[in-house]
Amino acid sequence: MLSIKHLSKSYVAGKPVLSDIDLDLAARGITAIIGPSGTGKSTLIRCINRLVEPTSGSIEFEGHDLTRLSRHALRQARRRIGMVFQEYNLVERLTVMENLLSGRLGYVSAWKAWRRKFPRGDIARAFELLDIVGLSGFANQRADSLSGGQRQRVGIARAVMQEPAVLLADEPTSSLDPKTSVEIMQLLTDIARARTIPVIINMHDVELARRFADRIVGMAGGKIVFDGPPAQLSDETLKTIYGGEDWLH
Amino acid sequence: MTDRPAVSASSNANPFPANWRSRGLWIALAVYVVYASAQMDVSAERVAVGLHNAGHFFGRMFPPNFTRWELLVKGLEESLEIAVLASTLGIALSLPIGLCASRNLMPAWVSWPARLIIVAARSFHPVIVAIVFVKAVGFGALAGILALAVASVGFAAKLFAEAIEEISLKQVEAVRATGASFMSVIGYGVLPQVFARFIGFCTYQLDSNLRNSTMVGIVGAGGIGGTLFAAFQRFDYDYVCAILISIIALIMAGEVLATYVRAIFIDGFSLADIFRRRERGATVHRVQHLEDD
Question: What kind of architecture, by CATH, is found in domain B71-292?
Protein backbone atom coordinates (compact mmCIF):
# COMPACT_ATOMS: atom_id res chain seq x y z
CA MET A 1 0.00 0.00 0.00
CA LEU A 2 2.83 2.32 0.92
CA SER A 3 6.27 1.28 -0.13
CA ILE A 4 9.38 3.30 0.70
CA LYS A 5 12.59 2.42 -1.14
CA HIS A 6 16.13 3.72 -0.69
CA LEU A 7 14.82 6.92 0.88
CA SER A 8 17.50 9.40 1.94
CA LYS A 9 17.27 12.93 3.22
CA SER A 10 20.01 15.35 4.12
CA TYR A 11 19.26 18.93 5.14
CA VAL A 12 22.97 19.69 4.87
CA ALA A 13 24.85 18.02 2.03
CA GLY A 14 26.95 15.13 3.28
CA LYS A 15 25.10 14.82 6.61
CA PRO A 16 22.17 12.52 5.94
CA VAL A 17 19.35 12.46 8.50
CA LEU A 18 17.84 9.44 6.78
CA SER A 19 20.01 7.05 4.85
CA ASP A 20 18.67 4.39 2.55
CA ILE A 21 15.38 3.63 4.32
CA ASP A 22 13.30 0.70 3.04
CA LEU A 23 9.87 0.26 4.56
CA ASP A 24 6.70 -1.45 3.37
CA LEU A 25 3.37 -0.78 4.93
CA ALA A 26 0.39 -3.15 4.89
CA ALA A 27 -3.12 -1.90 4.14
CA ARG A 28 -4.10 -2.12 7.78
CA GLY A 29 -2.62 -2.03 11.24
CA ILE A 30 -0.78 0.34 13.51
CA THR A 31 2.93 0.81 12.90
CA ALA A 32 4.92 2.65 15.54
CA ILE A 33 8.30 4.13 14.71
CA ILE A 34 10.41 4.48 17.83
CA GLY A 35 13.85 5.89 18.33
CA PRO A 36 15.76 8.63 20.11
CA SER A 37 15.16 12.30 19.33
CA GLY A 38 16.92 13.57 16.24
CA THR A 39 17.14 10.20 14.56
CA GLY A 40 14.95 11.19 11.64
CA LYS A 41 11.54 9.81 12.67
CA SER A 42 9.76 13.08 11.95
CA THR A 43 11.72 13.60 8.77
CA LEU A 44 10.72 10.13 7.56
CA ILE A 45 7.03 10.79 8.18
CA ARG A 46 7.19 14.24 6.63
CA CYS A 47 8.89 12.89 3.53
CA ILE A 48 5.82 10.75 2.89
CA ASN A 49 3.50 13.71 2.30
CA ARG A 50 6.45 15.87 1.23
CA LEU A 51 6.18 18.49 3.91
CA VAL A 52 9.90 17.71 3.72
CA GLU A 53 11.38 17.06 0.28
CA PRO A 54 13.32 13.76 0.17
CA THR A 55 16.82 13.94 -1.28
CA SER A 56 16.62 10.60 -3.07
CA GLY A 57 14.64 7.38 -3.15
CA SER A 58 11.04 6.58 -3.95
CA ILE A 59 7.74 6.33 -2.10
CA GLU A 60 5.15 4.23 -3.88
CA PHE A 61 1.55 5.08 -2.90
CA GLU A 62 -1.63 4.13 -4.77
CA GLY A 63 0.27 3.52 -7.98
CA HIS A 64 2.32 6.75 -7.94
CA ASP A 65 5.82 7.63 -6.84
CA LEU A 66 5.10 10.45 -4.40
CA THR A 67 8.61 11.86 -4.74
CA ARG A 68 8.06 12.60 -8.44
CA LEU A 69 4.61 14.16 -8.37
CA SER A 70 3.95 17.60 -9.81
CA ARG A 71 2.47 20.20 -7.45
CA HIS A 72 -1.05 19.52 -8.63
CA ALA A 73 -0.70 15.75 -8.42
CA LEU A 74 0.93 16.11 -5.00
CA ARG A 75 -2.14 18.00 -3.74
CA GLN A 76 -4.33 15.20 -5.06
CA ALA A 77 -2.19 12.62 -3.25
CA ARG A 78 -2.11 14.62 -0.01
CA ARG A 79 -5.90 14.44 0.14
CA ARG A 80 -5.49 10.69 0.69
CA ILE A 81 -2.89 11.10 3.46
CA GLY A 82 -4.15 12.33 6.82
CA MET A 83 -1.73 13.83 9.31
CA VAL A 84 -1.82 14.35 13.06
CA PHE A 85 0.78 16.68 14.57
CA GLN A 86 2.64 16.84 17.87
CA GLU A 87 1.44 20.35 18.60
CA TYR A 88 -1.98 19.69 17.06
CA ASN A 89 -1.44 22.50 14.49
CA LEU A 90 -5.07 23.56 14.62
CA VAL A 91 -5.88 26.94 13.15
CA GLU A 92 -6.28 28.66 16.49
CA ARG A 93 -8.65 31.42 15.42
CA LEU A 94 -11.06 29.13 13.63
CA THR A 95 -13.85 27.18 15.29
CA VAL A 96 -13.68 23.45 15.90
CA MET A 97 -16.10 22.92 13.01
CA GLU A 98 -14.01 25.04 10.64
CA ASN A 99 -10.92 23.09 11.65
CA LEU A 100 -12.68 19.80 10.93
CA LEU A 101 -13.96 21.02 7.58
CA SER A 102 -10.48 22.16 6.62
CA GLY A 103 -9.84 18.43 6.22
CA ARG A 104 -12.08 18.68 3.14
CA LEU A 105 -10.24 21.59 1.52
CA GLY A 106 -8.68 19.30 -1.05
CA TYR A 107 -12.14 18.52 -2.40
CA VAL A 108 -13.89 21.88 -2.11
CA SER A 109 -13.01 24.86 -4.31
CA ALA A 110 -11.34 27.80 -2.57
CA TRP A 111 -14.22 30.08 -3.57
CA LYS A 112 -16.75 27.81 -1.85
CA ALA A 113 -14.48 27.19 1.12
CA TRP A 114 -13.97 30.95 1.71
CA ARG A 115 -17.73 31.38 1.86
CA ARG A 116 -18.01 28.29 4.10
CA LYS A 117 -20.18 26.50 1.54
CA PHE A 118 -19.27 22.89 2.27
CA PRO A 119 -21.34 19.98 0.96
CA ARG A 120 -24.03 18.81 3.37
CA GLY A 121 -22.48 15.35 3.56
CA ASP A 122 -19.18 16.84 4.81
CA ILE A 123 -20.93 18.82 7.52
CA ALA A 124 -22.99 15.83 8.64
CA ARG A 125 -19.83 13.73 8.83
CA ALA A 126 -18.03 16.43 10.78
CA PHE A 127 -20.77 16.40 13.42
CA GLU A 128 -20.67 12.62 13.50
CA LEU A 129 -16.89 12.65 14.01
CA LEU A 130 -17.19 15.25 16.76
CA ASP A 131 -19.46 12.77 18.54
CA ILE A 132 -16.97 9.97 18.06
CA VAL A 133 -14.03 11.96 19.45
CA GLY A 134 -16.19 13.07 22.38
CA LEU A 135 -16.50 16.76 21.51
CA SER A 136 -20.16 17.07 20.55
CA GLY A 137 -21.33 20.53 21.52
CA PHE A 138 -17.89 22.06 20.82
CA ALA A 139 -18.53 22.76 17.13
CA ASN A 140 -18.69 26.53 17.46
CA GLN A 141 -15.91 26.99 20.02
CA ARG A 142 -12.69 28.52 18.85
CA ALA A 143 -9.79 26.07 18.79
CA ASP A 144 -7.70 28.27 21.07
CA SER A 145 -10.22 27.76 23.88
CA LEU A 146 -9.59 24.00 24.04
CA SER A 147 -7.24 21.99 26.27
CA GLY A 148 -4.37 19.97 24.81
CA GLY A 149 -6.25 16.68 24.83
CA GLN A 150 -9.30 18.27 23.25
CA ARG A 151 -7.15 19.87 20.58
CA GLN A 152 -5.59 16.59 19.64
CA ARG A 153 -9.07 15.07 19.38
CA VAL A 154 -9.91 17.81 16.89
CA GLY A 155 -6.60 17.13 15.12
CA ILE A 156 -7.49 13.45 14.75
CA ALA A 157 -11.02 14.28 13.57
CA ARG A 158 -9.61 16.72 11.00
CA ALA A 159 -7.30 14.04 9.61
CA VAL A 160 -10.10 11.46 9.48
CA MET A 161 -12.37 13.99 7.72
CA GLN A 162 -10.07 13.55 4.71
CA GLU A 163 -11.15 9.88 4.50
CA PRO A 164 -7.47 9.11 4.15
CA ALA A 165 -5.97 5.91 2.78
CA VAL A 166 -3.18 6.23 5.34
CA LEU A 167 -2.81 8.22 8.54
CA LEU A 168 0.51 9.74 9.62
CA ALA A 169 0.91 10.77 13.24
CA ASP A 170 4.01 12.74 14.20
CA GLU A 171 4.52 12.35 17.97
CA PRO A 172 0.78 12.78 18.60
CA THR A 173 1.04 12.41 22.38
CA SER A 174 4.40 14.02 23.16
CA SER A 175 2.79 17.27 24.33
CA LEU A 176 0.22 15.53 26.54
CA ASP A 177 0.18 14.14 30.08
CA PRO A 178 0.42 10.33 30.52
CA LYS A 179 -3.29 9.75 31.11
CA THR A 180 -4.39 11.89 28.17
CA SER A 181 -1.71 10.26 26.03
CA VAL A 182 -3.26 6.84 26.59
CA GLU A 183 -6.73 8.19 25.86
CA ILE A 184 -5.57 9.82 22.64
CA MET A 185 -3.73 6.67 21.52
CA GLN A 186 -6.84 4.64 22.30
CA LEU A 187 -9.01 7.01 20.28
CA LEU A 188 -6.60 7.15 17.35
CA THR A 189 -6.17 3.38 17.12
CA ASP A 190 -9.91 2.71 17.65
CA ILE A 191 -10.90 5.07 14.82
CA ALA A 192 -8.21 3.68 12.52
CA ARG A 193 -9.19 0.08 13.19
CA ALA A 194 -12.91 0.80 12.80
CA ARG A 195 -12.25 2.33 9.38
CA THR A 196 -9.33 0.07 8.44
CA ILE A 197 -6.99 2.98 7.91
CA PRO A 198 -3.35 1.99 8.31
CA VAL A 199 -1.47 4.30 10.70
CA ILE A 200 2.19 5.21 11.05
CA ILE A 201 2.95 6.78 14.42
CA ASN A 202 6.19 8.34 15.54
CA MET A 203 6.70 8.10 19.23
CA HIS A 204 9.42 7.99 21.78
CA ASP A 205 7.33 6.31 24.49
CA VAL A 206 8.25 2.63 24.18
CA GLU A 207 5.54 1.43 26.56
CA LEU A 208 2.78 3.21 24.59
CA ALA A 209 4.16 1.78 21.37
CA ARG A 210 4.17 -1.75 22.82
CA ARG A 211 0.63 -1.34 24.05
CA PHE A 212 -1.00 0.01 20.91
CA ALA A 213 1.07 -0.98 17.88
CA ASP A 214 0.87 -4.13 15.80
CA ARG A 215 4.32 -3.54 14.43
CA ILE A 216 7.28 -1.63 15.75
CA VAL A 217 10.02 -0.08 13.66
CA GLY A 218 13.09 0.97 15.60
CA MET A 219 15.32 3.69 14.18
CA ALA A 220 18.78 4.81 15.19
CA GLY A 221 21.16 7.13 13.38
CA GLY A 222 18.88 7.56 10.38
CA LYS A 223 18.57 3.81 9.75
CA ILE A 224 16.04 1.13 10.57
CA VAL A 225 17.57 -1.21 13.14
CA PHE A 226 14.49 -3.19 14.18
CA ASP A 227 11.26 -4.20 12.49
CA GLY A 228 8.86 -6.67 14.04
CA PRO A 229 5.91 -7.25 16.38
CA PRO A 230 6.02 -5.73 19.87
CA ALA A 231 6.62 -9.13 21.44
CA GLN A 232 10.02 -9.38 19.76
CA LEU A 233 11.16 -6.04 21.10
CA SER A 234 13.71 -7.14 23.68
CA ASP A 235 15.89 -5.09 26.02
CA GLU A 236 18.77 -6.03 23.74
CA THR A 237 17.08 -4.31 20.77
CA LEU A 238 16.15 -1.29 22.86
CA LYS A 239 19.81 -0.94 23.75
CA THR A 240 20.73 -0.83 20.06
CA ILE A 241 17.99 1.68 19.34
CA TYR A 242 18.54 4.10 22.18
CA GLY A 243 22.07 3.22 23.31
CA GLY A 244 23.10 2.66 26.93
CA GLU A 245 21.10 0.52 29.34
CA ASP A 246 20.83 2.43 32.61
CA TRP A 247 17.41 3.82 31.64
CA LEU A 248 15.90 0.36 31.07
CA HIS A 249 15.25 -0.61 34.70
CA MET B 1 47.72 34.87 44.68
CA THR B 2 48.34 36.36 41.29
CA ASP B 3 44.59 37.02 40.92
CA ARG B 4 44.26 39.28 43.93
CA PRO B 5 45.74 42.54 42.57
CA ALA B 6 43.55 42.26 39.49
CA VAL B 7 40.38 41.90 41.60
CA SER B 8 41.19 44.87 43.81
CA ALA B 9 42.12 46.99 40.80
CA SER B 10 38.78 46.31 39.13
CA SER B 11 36.82 46.97 42.34
CA ASN B 12 38.54 50.37 42.65
CA ALA B 13 37.78 51.28 39.06
CA ASN B 14 35.09 53.87 38.32
CA PRO B 15 31.91 51.87 37.54
CA PHE B 16 30.56 54.75 35.41
CA PRO B 17 33.34 55.62 32.98
CA ALA B 18 32.78 58.73 30.90
CA ASN B 19 31.35 57.92 27.50
CA TRP B 20 32.97 60.60 25.38
CA ARG B 21 31.24 59.59 22.23
CA SER B 22 27.73 60.16 23.64
CA ARG B 23 28.90 63.37 25.34
CA GLY B 24 30.27 64.55 22.04
CA LEU B 25 26.89 63.97 20.39
CA TRP B 26 25.06 66.00 23.08
CA ILE B 27 27.53 68.86 22.68
CA ALA B 28 27.22 68.74 18.90
CA LEU B 29 23.43 68.91 19.17
CA ALA B 30 23.61 71.93 21.52
CA VAL B 31 26.02 73.75 19.20
CA TYR B 32 23.85 73.06 16.17
CA VAL B 33 20.67 74.30 17.90
CA VAL B 34 22.39 77.60 18.71
CA TYR B 35 23.78 77.88 15.18
CA ALA B 36 20.44 77.07 13.52
CA SER B 37 18.59 79.62 15.70
CA ALA B 38 21.06 82.28 14.62
CA GLN B 39 20.65 81.29 10.97
CA MET B 40 16.85 81.41 11.23
CA ASP B 41 17.00 84.77 12.97
CA VAL B 42 15.08 83.38 15.95
CA SER B 43 15.76 86.01 18.58
CA ALA B 44 13.88 87.14 21.68
CA GLU B 45 12.48 90.16 19.79
CA ARG B 46 11.32 87.92 16.93
CA VAL B 47 9.49 85.64 19.43
CA ALA B 48 7.84 88.66 21.06
CA VAL B 49 6.62 89.99 17.69
CA GLY B 50 5.36 86.53 16.82
CA LEU B 51 3.44 86.17 20.07
CA HIS B 52 1.84 89.55 19.62
CA ASN B 53 0.78 88.63 16.10
CA ALA B 54 -0.56 85.27 17.31
CA GLY B 55 -2.68 86.99 19.94
CA HIS B 56 -4.18 89.21 17.27
CA PHE B 57 -4.82 86.22 14.99
CA PHE B 58 -6.48 84.08 17.66
CA GLY B 59 -8.55 87.09 18.71
CA ARG B 60 -9.98 87.35 15.22
CA MET B 61 -10.80 83.60 15.15
CA PHE B 62 -13.42 83.97 17.84
CA PRO B 63 -16.31 83.64 17.81
CA PRO B 64 -16.28 81.03 15.01
CA ASN B 65 -18.50 81.94 12.09
CA PHE B 66 -20.82 79.19 10.90
CA THR B 67 -22.97 81.34 8.58
CA ARG B 68 -21.55 79.72 5.45
CA TRP B 69 -22.26 76.24 6.82
CA GLU B 70 -23.51 74.87 3.48
CA LEU B 71 -20.10 75.28 1.89
CA LEU B 72 -18.56 73.80 5.01
CA VAL B 73 -20.78 70.71 4.96
CA LYS B 74 -20.18 70.22 1.25
CA GLY B 75 -16.42 70.28 1.85
CA LEU B 76 -16.66 67.86 4.76
CA GLU B 77 -18.83 65.50 2.73
CA GLU B 78 -16.30 65.53 -0.05
CA SER B 79 -13.45 64.87 2.40
CA LEU B 80 -15.34 61.94 3.90
CA GLU B 81 -16.00 60.51 0.45
CA ILE B 82 -12.36 60.90 -0.51
CA ALA B 83 -11.27 59.16 2.70
CA VAL B 84 -13.64 56.21 2.37
CA LEU B 85 -13.02 55.66 -1.34
CA ALA B 86 -9.26 56.03 -0.96
CA SER B 87 -9.21 53.62 1.99
CA THR B 88 -11.32 51.05 0.15
CA LEU B 89 -9.22 51.26 -3.00
CA GLY B 90 -5.92 51.38 -1.09
CA ILE B 91 -6.75 48.41 1.12
CA ALA B 92 -8.10 46.40 -1.81
CA LEU B 93 -4.71 46.92 -3.48
CA SER B 94 -2.79 46.37 -0.25
CA LEU B 95 -4.17 42.88 0.42
CA PRO B 96 -2.64 41.19 -2.64
CA ILE B 97 0.49 43.36 -2.56
CA GLY B 98 1.02 42.67 1.15
CA LEU B 99 0.54 38.95 0.61
CA CYS B 100 3.02 38.97 -2.26
CA ALA B 101 5.52 40.91 -0.16
CA SER B 102 5.51 38.38 2.72
CA ARG B 103 8.79 36.53 2.52
CA ASN B 104 7.62 33.45 4.42
CA LEU B 105 4.94 32.52 1.89
CA MET B 106 6.34 33.89 -1.34
CA PRO B 107 9.54 33.22 -3.28
CA ALA B 108 12.02 36.08 -3.56
CA TRP B 109 11.13 36.84 -7.18
CA VAL B 110 7.58 37.69 -6.05
CA SER B 111 8.31 39.38 -2.74
CA TRP B 112 11.01 41.76 -3.96
CA PRO B 113 8.94 43.50 -6.67
CA ALA B 114 6.04 43.76 -4.20
CA ARG B 115 8.38 45.30 -1.62
CA LEU B 116 9.61 47.72 -4.24
CA ILE B 117 6.04 48.88 -4.91
CA ILE B 118 5.49 49.41 -1.18
CA VAL B 119 8.71 51.37 -0.76
CA ALA B 120 7.85 53.53 -3.77
CA ALA B 121 4.37 54.22 -2.36
CA ARG B 122 5.86 55.14 1.01
CA SER B 123 8.59 57.38 -0.30
CA PHE B 124 6.57 60.56 -0.74
CA HIS B 125 4.31 62.51 1.54
CA PRO B 126 0.65 62.37 0.46
CA VAL B 127 0.77 66.09 -0.40
CA ILE B 128 3.53 65.54 -2.95
CA VAL B 129 1.65 62.58 -4.43
CA ALA B 130 -1.52 64.72 -4.51
CA ILE B 131 0.31 67.45 -6.46
CA VAL B 132 1.47 64.84 -8.96
CA PHE B 133 -2.06 63.51 -9.40
CA VAL B 134 -3.56 67.00 -9.70
CA LYS B 135 -1.14 67.60 -12.56
CA ALA B 136 -1.93 64.18 -14.05
CA VAL B 137 -5.72 63.92 -13.80
CA GLY B 138 -6.70 67.53 -13.08
CA PHE B 139 -8.15 69.38 -10.08
CA GLY B 140 -10.75 67.72 -7.89
CA ALA B 141 -11.56 64.75 -5.71
CA LEU B 142 -10.24 62.09 -8.10
CA ALA B 143 -6.68 63.32 -7.59
CA GLY B 144 -7.19 63.23 -3.81
CA ILE B 145 -8.59 59.70 -3.89
CA LEU B 146 -5.70 58.41 -5.97
CA ALA B 147 -3.09 60.19 -3.84
CA LEU B 148 -4.45 58.78 -0.57
CA ALA B 149 -4.90 55.32 -2.11
CA VAL B 150 -1.18 55.34 -2.94
CA ALA B 151 -0.37 56.41 0.61
CA SER B 152 -2.61 53.62 1.94
CA VAL B 153 -0.75 51.01 -0.10
CA GLY B 154 2.55 52.22 1.30
CA PHE B 155 1.29 51.89 4.84
CA ALA B 156 -1.27 49.06 4.90
CA ALA B 157 0.53 46.70 2.52
CA LYS B 158 3.71 46.96 4.58
CA LEU B 159 1.84 46.19 7.80
CA PHE B 160 -0.07 43.34 6.14
CA ALA B 161 3.20 41.81 4.96
CA GLU B 162 4.75 42.13 8.41
CA ALA B 163 1.69 40.56 10.07
CA ILE B 164 1.79 37.64 7.64
CA GLU B 165 5.49 37.14 8.28
CA GLU B 166 4.75 36.66 11.99
CA ILE B 167 2.14 33.91 11.65
CA SER B 168 2.62 30.36 12.89
CA LEU B 169 3.65 28.21 9.95
CA LYS B 170 2.56 25.08 11.80
CA GLN B 171 -1.06 25.99 11.22
CA VAL B 172 -0.32 26.67 7.56
CA GLU B 173 1.50 23.36 7.26
CA ALA B 174 -1.49 21.46 8.64
CA VAL B 175 -3.85 23.01 6.11
CA ARG B 176 -1.36 22.37 3.32
CA ALA B 177 -1.09 18.72 4.38
CA THR B 178 -4.79 18.17 3.63
CA GLY B 179 -4.14 18.80 -0.06
CA ALA B 180 -5.70 22.26 0.00
CA SER B 181 -5.08 24.59 -2.96
CA PHE B 182 -2.99 27.74 -2.49
CA MET B 183 -6.04 29.99 -2.14
CA SER B 184 -7.60 27.63 0.40
CA VAL B 185 -4.36 27.61 2.38
CA ILE B 186 -4.51 31.42 2.42
CA GLY B 187 -8.18 31.41 3.44
CA TYR B 188 -7.90 28.78 6.17
CA GLY B 189 -4.27 28.80 7.30
CA VAL B 190 -3.15 32.41 6.90
CA LEU B 191 -6.09 34.84 7.02
CA PRO B 192 -7.62 33.59 10.27
CA GLN B 193 -4.29 34.26 11.97
CA VAL B 194 -4.01 37.85 10.77
CA PHE B 195 -7.64 38.92 10.35
CA ALA B 196 -7.97 40.74 13.68
CA ARG B 197 -4.78 42.70 13.05
CA PHE B 198 -5.85 43.52 9.49
CA ILE B 199 -9.08 45.02 10.80
CA GLY B 200 -7.01 47.12 13.17
CA PHE B 201 -4.75 48.33 10.34
CA CYS B 202 -7.75 49.09 8.13
CA THR B 203 -9.54 51.20 10.73
CA TYR B 204 -6.29 53.00 11.48
CA GLN B 205 -5.82 53.63 7.78
CA LEU B 206 -9.34 55.03 7.46
CA ASP B 207 -8.65 57.30 10.42
CA SER B 208 -5.41 58.48 8.87
CA ASN B 209 -7.01 59.01 5.44
CA LEU B 210 -9.77 61.04 7.03
CA ARG B 211 -7.14 63.38 8.45
CA ASN B 212 -5.18 63.53 5.22
CA SER B 213 -8.33 64.09 3.15
CA THR B 214 -8.82 67.42 4.91
CA MET B 215 -5.37 68.44 3.68
CA VAL B 216 -5.09 67.37 0.04
CA GLY B 217 -7.61 70.10 -0.82
CA ILE B 218 -4.87 72.66 -0.16
CA VAL B 219 -3.16 71.56 -3.38
CA GLY B 220 -6.46 71.36 -5.26
CA ALA B 221 -7.21 67.68 -4.81
CA GLY B 222 -10.71 68.14 -3.38
CA GLY B 223 -12.29 68.21 0.05
CA ILE B 224 -12.54 70.69 2.91
CA GLY B 225 -8.85 71.64 2.61
CA GLY B 226 -9.58 73.83 -0.40
CA THR B 227 -12.23 75.75 1.52
CA LEU B 228 -9.86 76.12 4.47
CA PHE B 229 -7.04 77.43 2.31
CA ALA B 230 -9.34 79.94 0.58
CA ALA B 231 -10.59 81.18 3.96
CA PHE B 232 -6.99 81.69 5.14
CA GLN B 233 -6.15 83.69 2.05
CA ARG B 234 -9.19 85.92 2.49
CA PHE B 235 -8.30 86.49 6.17
CA ASP B 236 -11.72 85.03 7.17
CA TYR B 237 -10.25 83.80 10.43
CA ASP B 238 -13.62 83.28 12.14
CA TYR B 239 -14.61 81.02 9.25
CA VAL B 240 -11.22 79.25 9.50
CA CYS B 241 -12.03 78.58 13.14
CA ALA B 242 -15.42 77.10 12.19
CA ILE B 243 -13.73 74.82 9.65
CA LEU B 244 -11.09 73.67 12.16
CA ILE B 245 -13.78 72.84 14.73
CA SER B 246 -15.71 70.88 12.10
CA ILE B 247 -12.58 68.93 11.13
CA ILE B 248 -11.99 68.02 14.79
CA ALA B 249 -15.60 66.81 15.00
CA LEU B 250 -15.17 64.76 11.82
CA ILE B 251 -11.97 63.11 13.08
CA MET B 252 -13.58 62.32 16.42
CA ALA B 253 -16.59 60.79 14.69
CA GLY B 254 -14.20 58.73 12.59
CA GLU B 255 -12.42 57.48 15.69
CA VAL B 256 -15.67 56.41 17.33
CA LEU B 257 -16.68 54.64 14.12
CA ALA B 258 -13.30 52.85 13.99
CA THR B 259 -13.77 51.62 17.56
CA TYR B 260 -17.18 50.20 16.69
CA VAL B 261 -15.87 48.52 13.56
CA ARG B 262 -13.13 46.86 15.60
CA ALA B 263 -15.60 45.82 18.28
CA ILE B 264 -17.94 44.22 15.76
CA PHE B 265 -15.31 42.46 13.66
CA ILE B 266 -12.81 41.43 16.29
CA ASP B 267 -14.89 40.84 19.39
CA GLY B 268 -18.07 39.78 17.64
CA PHE B 269 -20.20 42.29 19.51
CA SER B 270 -23.53 43.30 18.09
CA LEU B 271 -24.27 47.00 17.82
CA ALA B 272 -26.76 46.68 20.68
CA ASP B 273 -24.07 45.12 22.90
CA ILE B 274 -21.80 48.07 22.31
CA PHE B 275 -24.39 50.58 23.37
CA ARG B 276 -25.54 48.51 26.32
CA ARG B 277 -22.20 47.59 27.85
CA ARG B 278 -19.99 50.51 27.05
CA GLU B 279 -17.85 50.33 30.18
CA ARG B 280 -17.48 46.57 30.38
CA GLY B 281 -17.11 46.44 26.63
CA ALA B 282 -14.11 48.74 26.82
CA THR B 283 -12.21 46.51 29.24
CA VAL B 284 -13.15 43.29 27.47
CA HIS B 285 -11.97 44.90 24.27
CA ARG B 286 -8.60 45.77 25.74
CA VAL B 287 -8.03 42.31 27.19
CA GLN B 288 -8.88 40.66 23.90
CA HIS B 289 -6.48 42.96 22.16
CA LEU B 290 -3.67 41.75 24.37
CA GLU B 291 -4.55 38.18 23.49
CA ASP B 292 -4.77 39.04 19.84
CA ASP B 293 -1.25 40.41 19.69
Answer: Orthogonal Bundle (1.10)
Q: Where residue B268 falls among pLDDT bands split at 50, 70, 90? A: low
Task: Name chain B contacts of A82, Cβ cutoff 8 Å.
Answer: 178
Of B171, B179, B182, the CB nearest to A91: B171
Residue of A nearest to B175 (CA): A102
B175 contacts in A (CB within 8 Å)?
Answer: 91, 102, 105
Q: Over the stretch B1-50, which tens digit does the pLDDT of each residue have?
A: 444 555 555 567 778 878 888 999 999 999 999 898 888 877 788 888 88
**What pairs with residue A61 in β-bridges?**
A2, A64
Choose, out of A105, A118, A162, the residue to mutate when testing the contact with B (most B CBs < 10 Å). Answer: A105
List helix spans (H) across chain B.
3-12, 20-39, 44-61, 69-101, 108-123, 126-137, 141-152, 158-165, 169-177, 182-185, 191-213, 224-233, 237-267, 271-276, 278-292
Minimal CA–CA distance to A44: which of A72, A16, A75, A74?
A16
Most B CBs within 10 A among A62, A102, A122, A154, hence the mutation to make, goes to A102
> So what's the pLDDT on residue B30?
95
Chain A residues whose CB is inside 8 A of the B178 CB are 78-79, 82, 102-106, 158, 162
3 state DSSP class of B163: helix
The torsion defined by the Cα of A22, A166, A91 and A47, in degrees rounded to 10, comes to: 20
Residue ranges per structural domain of chain A? 2-248
Digit-coded pLDDT (tens) for A215-248: 999 999 889 999 999 999 888 888 888 887 777 7
CATH code, residues A2-248? 3.40.50.300
CA closest to B193 among chain A residues: A93
* Residue in A closest to B182 by C-alpha: A110
3-state secondary structure of A23: strand
- Taking a C-beta distance cutoff of 8 angstroms, is the pair A54, A7 a contact? yes
Cβ-Cβ contacts under 8 Å, B174 against chain A: 83, 85, 89-91, 102, 155, 158
ipTM: 0.92
CB B115 within 8 A of CB B164: no
Mutate to test the interface with B, among A42, A89, A142 (most CBs of B within 10 A): A89
**A83 in contact with chain B, both atoms CB, cutoff 8 A:** yes
User: What does the DSSP 8-state code read for residue A15?
Assistant: B
Rounded to 10 deg, the angle between the B224-233 and B69-101 helix axes is: 130
Task: Quote the pTM value.
Answer: 0.79
Exposure string over B204-236, b if 16+ CB within 10 A, otherwise e: ebbbbbbebbbbbbbbbbbbbbbbbbbbeeeeb
